[in-house]
Design goal:
Length: 313
């Protein structure tokens, strides 16, 4: 009896060690995988606050919470099952999906740059305009539009992360992606919630006396600039990440010239250290992302001019 109990405890200890090891693998894999999606994360953080701009401050956090819930559903119930299924039955499809996602990132980034230079018309970025008569209908429309936009951004986050998961165990792969889904959702929308309430905090502080009031007024005045900086960083990150994804995925499919060119350029500056290598790779990926995205943007502009004419014929 004692021997059986000892054996059982030994089995439990072994299982606990295996579980702890798996959790370590999941955490490490999630950190590595999610780091590659930084461009999309920044863009997601820059985009979301615009949905609650101009609304009753008391409704900002509830709406962000509903959008976050929709984002988590997008990742776990739609994107993850489809992505995992494709990796199991058609792994060759992942580079193609990544090229599509990287091209979309490049297009979005390039369109923003070209629009700032007045070389491209401003394009609708957040889906349908919300027309409603009651506050509840307005909120439902906002959440629906934001969730649709999030589906695209979340798909890119999950696909980019999945492409960087190196674990061989299917259970660990699933665990990593579930961890990424929760972490990315809470990180993005938690940060968004903090950002959109900073001006409210500033207004409250401004009502007090002394240095606190001055800090509050400064906070209110600086927040628009913070969102502007986030938008610029997000655009740059989209071009860099989008260009890198397309180049790397084309190489995975056997088209190596672009990847070889970047490698040769990085080799030229490797004597200057890791920072120089990273800067060169990032710069070339960003330039390619801008060129590739501009090509797609103008092609899309041409197509969009033709489609409405046919639709109204």
């Amino acid at each position: 009896m004692a021997g059986g109990l000892i054996a059982l405890l030994d089995d439990i200890a072994t299982l606990a060690k295996a579980t702890a090891s798996s959790l370590d693998d999941i955490a490490a894999g999630a950190a590595k995988a999610s780091s590659k999606a930084v461009g999309v994360v920044i863009d997601d953080t820059a985009v979301t606050p615009q949905y609650v701009s101009g609304l009753d401050p008391s409704r900002e956090l509830p709406i962000i919470k509903r959008i976050a819930r929709g984002s988590l559903i997008n990742k776990l119930a739609i994107i993850l099952p489809v992505a995992l299924l494709l990796t199991w039955i058609a792994p060759w499809a992942l580079p193609i999906l990544l090229i599509i996602g990287g091209s979309f990132l490049s297009f979005e980034g390039a369109a923003k740059v070209l629009a700032k230079l007045r070389l491209y018309p401003e394009h609708a970025e957040h889906g349908d305009e919300v027309e409603a008569k009651t506050p509840d209908e307005v909120e439902k429309g906002i959440v629906s539009s934001a969730t649709r936009t999030d589906l695209i951004l979340s798909a890119e986050i999950m696909l980019i992360s999945l492409a960087n998961v190196t674990a061989e165990s299917n259970a660990v792969r699933v665990g990593i992606m579930v961890f990424v889904a929760f972490f990315m959702t809470f990180f993005v929308y938690g940060l968004v919630a903090i950002l959109v309430k900073m001006d409210d905090l500033g207004l409250r502080l401004a009502e007090r006396d002394g240095a606190v009031a001055g800090f509050g007024r400064s906070l209110v005045s600086v927040m628009p600039k913070v969102f502007t900086v986030i938008g610029v960083v997000g655009t740059v990150a989209m071009l860099w990440v989008g260009g890198h994804i397309v180049i790397a995925s084309l190489s995975d499919l056997g088209f190596d010239p672009l990847h070889h060119f970047v490698e040769q350029a990085v080799h030229l500056v490797e004597a200057w250290g890791g920072a120089a290598k990273w800067t060169m790779e990032t710069l070339l990926s960003g330039v390619f992302g801008l060129l590739w995205g501009s090509l797609i943007a103008y092609a899309w502009l041409g197509i969009s001019k033709l489609v409405p004419k046919k639709a109204h014929a």
